[in-house]
Fold this protein.
Amino acid sequence: MYKTPCSRLSGLVGVSVKLLQNIPRCNQAARSLIQLHRRDPSNWSTYQHLTFLKRQYVAKNSSELHQRAVPKQDPVLTIVDEREDSVERQVQRIPTIDPVATEAVLQSEDVTSKTQPEVSTLNSTAEDVAVQKDAVCKTVAVSGETPHIQVETEEAREARLDRQWKQLKVHMADLPDIYARLAKIKLTALVVTTAAAGYAMAPVPFDPLMFFVSSLGTGLASCSANSINQYFEVPFDSNMNRTKNRPLVRGQISPLHAVSFALACGIPGVALLTLAVNPLTGFLGALNIFLYTCCYTPLKRLSITNTWVGAVVGAIPPVMGWTAATGFLEPGALLLGGFLYSWQFPHFNALSWNLREDYSRGGYRMMSVTHPGMCKRVALRHSLGLIGLSTLAPVLGVTTWTFPLISLPINLYISYLAFRFYRKGDRSSARKLFFCSLWHLPMLLLLALTCKKPRRDQTDAGLPPAPSLPLTLQS
């Protein structure tokens, strides 16, 4: 469309307006065009502005349409007075109290209309309302009946109060269960189990006291991280069916109580790992709390990279078990961490696939919600990666060569279920993959423990001692 500035067409528009002043149909359109030019001369005048001779147009200034909505008027009931058909009055309708009282009011109105002279129809609405209210009061007084009042029963009152929000009263006997749900006791048990597996796989003599202390410190660190995670996610957990019954969401404990519980678990847990075990294990415990609360938790609402960060958090506990036993970060510890890292993708991706609606309501950017194709591919890729990690275990001297062979069936089975999940992508295949992952990890760690490579001191103890060479002194 050809455009020219309004400044160049101002003379042409002025002449055309003077010539068309006698045309009443176009006079208004021309005036609106001149006002548009005076208000904002920088606007462009197009061919559509010059076609006001044929049709009307709507001026749109700076892509904004200025409109003002007309306020909606309240509906007024119109009642025709039967005493005079020629006059209509607008009165306010009074809600009925009782059918018996209504009939009595009608009868009293008939009696008063017969005995009293006709009243002018120009009386105010307030007077009519007052007359009707007086009639209702007189009728009730004459009849001697009390108006119907709905009495709420005790059962109805209790049901109504139960539906309302109220702060729950917590007794001391309920605190252990609340603390268990606040710490996600099942997830904490899984973390302690993987840390214990890492301690048992380390090539050092087994120390029961050190094993107990490291497991206790790891469990306390996990409880602290889970409590802080729930503290940050209260407004989002309330929108999800899976998490709406958590203690902080239901108001069973206060946020200060939850933070105090987290500090009471986290500080002794990290101190126990640092002072009683070794500083490296204590650093890994503090790092795990930081990654879970300050990186993984906010990333759940920002990017799908939260899944990879969460996998790193889950891979640290077996490394902590290994360092608690040896005091060093060795390739065997990284291998056990790799097992947990790869296992979490088929486990969590299958779980989140059937919870996509919940995660969407909570505002979490999970891979299953925003990138469903990637979710299935990553689950299959890391399921196949478990086969490669199992083959790498004897190469690093962690297990014998029997482990890749006896772990191949379960690795192939979870890979098969991940392939079905990749091909179908339905709820049934995701559910089967998730339940398989629940028993796959304990079985894999147990097979690795049974195929653990003997320690060097045990191997050396089984060999006969080397003969000592005779020393001769020459004079």
In short: DSSP finds 21 helices and four strands in the chain. The first helix runs from residue 6 to 19. Strands lie at 4-5, 44-45, 78-80, 88-90. The longest strand covers residues 78-80.
